[in-house]
Each structure stands twice: as C-alpha cells, then as structure tokens.
Amino acid sequence: xxxxxxxxxxxxxxxxxxxxxxQMANLADKTRDHLGRAALDLTTAYINSAEKILQALDDVRDxxxxxxxxxxxxxxxxxxxxxxNRALRAEP
Length: 92
What we know:
Blueprint: H1 4-30, H2 34-60, H3 67-90
Helix pairs in contact: 1-2, 2-3
C-alpha cells in the first residue's frame, strides 16, 4: 500500500510548504498595497491547501492504519482535493 520513499518525500514537501506559507504570511503582513496584500493572502491560502493535501496523502499512505482508518483517510483526502478544485475554479 505505501512505499516509504513517497511518504518521506510527501513529508519533506509538506515541511517546505509550511515554511513557505509562514514566509509568505510574514510578507503579506508587511505589504501596505491592497492588491499586493490580496495576492499574497490568496497565495498563502493555496500553499496552505497544498500542505494539507500532502498531509492527507501521507495519512492515506500510512501502512500502520487499519482498514477503517485507511477508508477515513481516503475520504478526507478526496474531500480536500474536491475543496481545493472548487476553490481554484471559483477564482476569476
């Protein structure tokens, strides 16, 4: 069900996204320009969504969980992907 390389890479990218999210949020806090602030806020929201999707993927790939846990993780990942897709389509 899970190969350790994918789980390790997903965790590494999740951590990178977490750091980028924090840096972008700090940059947004310092931005006085309304349009620039809106763009940075939207970017941080997308980065946060990507981080959460990777976390959900890592949960799906966890070989230690049982069948019920795996099913719940798949449902959570599917919901996260659906929300992210709807959010992307809703933006002009």
